[in-house]
Design a protein that fits this description.
The protein has 2 domains: about 5-80 and about 85-105 and about 180-250 and about 345-415, FAD/NAD(P)-binding domain (3-Layer(bba) Sandwich); about 115-175 and about 255-340, D-Amino Acid Oxidase, subunit A, domain 2 (D-Amino Acid Oxidase, Chain A, domain 2, 2-Layer Sandwich), CATH 3.30.9.10. About 30% of the residues lie in helices and about 25% in strands. It has 10 helices and 18 strands. The strands form 3 sheets. Strands 1, 2, 8, 9, 10, 11, 17 and 18 form an 8-stranded mixed sheet that branches. Helix 2 (about 40-55) packs across helix 9 (about 370-385). It is globular and about 65 Å long. Bound molecules: flavin-adenine dinucleotide. Its EC number is 1.5.3.24.
């Protein structure tokens, strides 16, 4: 059933008793043309675009827990394309363009809100760097506006511009960037993929990757062996574990990142604001809570929970940027497992194992990439070769040295 005003009125008259399930709950079949591991945003988007763009519908998405229980439902929902390097910017801009039509495309309101993302600059050097980044973005067809300190003050009155420890010198604004409702993204993509015939199988953990003569033949799961012509990994924080099952050691580490939400208040921050003197980002949810986060917890782990020093560090950053935040009560905080690559950029790629494809290394920024990543990964799997947009995001770059070190922090994932 398509969601529409007409259907909403019809269901209202019937007391909302006629809505069908948003997606089926099928048992796994003996085999599929393509098996995607991981029902997060990237796995679901890949399955959707495999069916929609390439007509490949004999597809299963296998999820060890429940759909959307991973990072897709744990992030701070920031969507942007303000990258600098030629290998990154066209990919993220393509993703942003897909976001702009996503709700209509999948017939599900993902609440994409183009409220703008404002990066604050705290030194003359940062203003110069942002000017360079903005020019690079515009050369790739993205939008970017350099703001003066007074323009920043006008846009975000809650900032402490006069007494702050780190003075604000200006900012780089991407007006088309913003936020989306993360759970809706998972649910909408699941519903859209399911409606095209994709089987989404929850509570089905992949425990092994079956191979014969260097080629993938299927996966071992907690619900039995499933044959597969091709297997795509989209397991975010568990990327290294799954790759290990196929004998691959990846340039990826798993780290923890926490997110925070306060009690709901009246509108206070009407765009996403990032703080470049530390590492901190804040926005306000439609419900009214301030949603924010900062840096990784600083140690490797697969446990989706964080430690107290990271909480203190984050709150300190919040206080130096917007002291009024200190009067709010923190409602919840939670953690997710981040797949940090060694140059800070993602991997959407074929692997040395024939028929096995890899989507991972998303670091802090995979949510914004969800539609673009699924679109490019589907292309790579269907055609057995990367699209021009994800060719620079190959696994081989770590062998050849063509790294995409956007942050210039080298192979130190904790500093990306
Ligand atoms: C606190 C936090 C804040 C963030 N903020 C932002 C942000 O503001 N903007 C942004 O762009 N990005 C952000 N990110 C990053 C972003 O959320 C991730 O990069 C992105 O969601 C990862 O892709 P995914 O949605 O497919 O991952 P996930 O939702 O984690 O999906 C992977 C799935 O694979 C499943 N899986 C794992 N192992 C197996 C197995 N063996 N068998 C079957 N299934 C398996 C998992 O259960 C999981 O559901 C943030 C992340 C965190 C943790």
């Amino acid at each position: 059933m398509r969601y529409s005003l007409f259907n909403l009125i019809g269901q209202t008259m019937r007391g909302h008793r006629g809505w069908p399930r948003a997606w089926r709950d099928p048992d796994p079949k003996a085999g599929y043309d393509v098996v995607i591991v991981g029902a997060g945003g990237h796995g679901l988007a890949t399955a959707y675009y495999l069916a929609k763009e390439h007509g490949i519908t004999n597809v299963a998405v296998l999820e060890k827990g429940y759909l959307g229980g991973g990072n897709v439902g744990r992030n701070t929902t920031i969507v942007r394309s303000n990258y600098e390097l030629p290998g990154n910017e066209p990919f993220y801009e393509h993703s942003l363009k897909l976001w702009e039509g996503l709700s209509q495309d999948i017939n599900y309101n993902v609440m994409f809100s183009q409220r703008g993302v404002l990066n604050l600059a705290h030194s003359d050097g940062q203003v110069d760097a942002f000017a360079r980044r903005g020019n690079g973005m515009r050369l790739h067809g993205a939008d970017a506006v350099l703001l003066t300190r007074e323009e920043v003050r006008e846009r975000v009155p809650a900032l402490d511009l006069d007494n702050a420890r780190f003075p604000v010198r200006g900012g780089l604004l991407q007006p088309r960037a913003g936020t989306a409702r993360h759970d809706a993204v998972a649910w909408g993509l699941a519903r859209a993929a399911d409606s095209l015939g994709v089987d989404i199988i929850q509570n089905c953990e992949v425990t092994g990757i079956a191979r014969e003569n260097g080629r993938v033949t299927g996966v071992e799961t907690t619900r039995g062996h499933i044959k597969a012509g091709k297997v795509g990994l989209a397991v975010a924080g568990h990327t290294t574990k799954l790759a290990e099952m196929a004998g691959l050691r990846l340039p990826v580490e798993s780290h923890l990142l926490q997110a925070f939400v306060t009690e709901a208040i009246k509108p206070m921050v009407d765009q996403v604001v990032t703080f470049a003197a530390g590492h901190f980002y804040i926005s306000q949810s439609d419900h009214g809570g301030l949603v924010f986060g900062s840096s990784l917890d600083g140690y490797n782990s697969y446990a989706a929970r964080g430690n107290m020093p990271a909480v203190e560090h984050t709150i300190e950053a919040a206080m130096s940027l917007m002291p009024s935040v200190g009067r709010l009560r923190l409602l919840r905080h939670w953690g997710g497992v981040m797949d940090m690559s060694m140059d800070g950029s993602p991997i959407i790629s074929k692997t040395p194992v024939e028929g096995l494809y890899l989507n991972g290394g998303w670091c802090y920024g995979g949510f914004k990439a969800t539609p673009g990543s699924g679109w490019c990964f589907a292309h790579t799997i269907a055609r057995d070769e990367p699209h021009a947009l994800n060719a620079p995001l190959s696994l081989e770059r770590f062998e050849s040295g063509h790294l995409l070190d956007e942050e210039s922090t080298g192979p130190f994932p904790n500093t990306h």
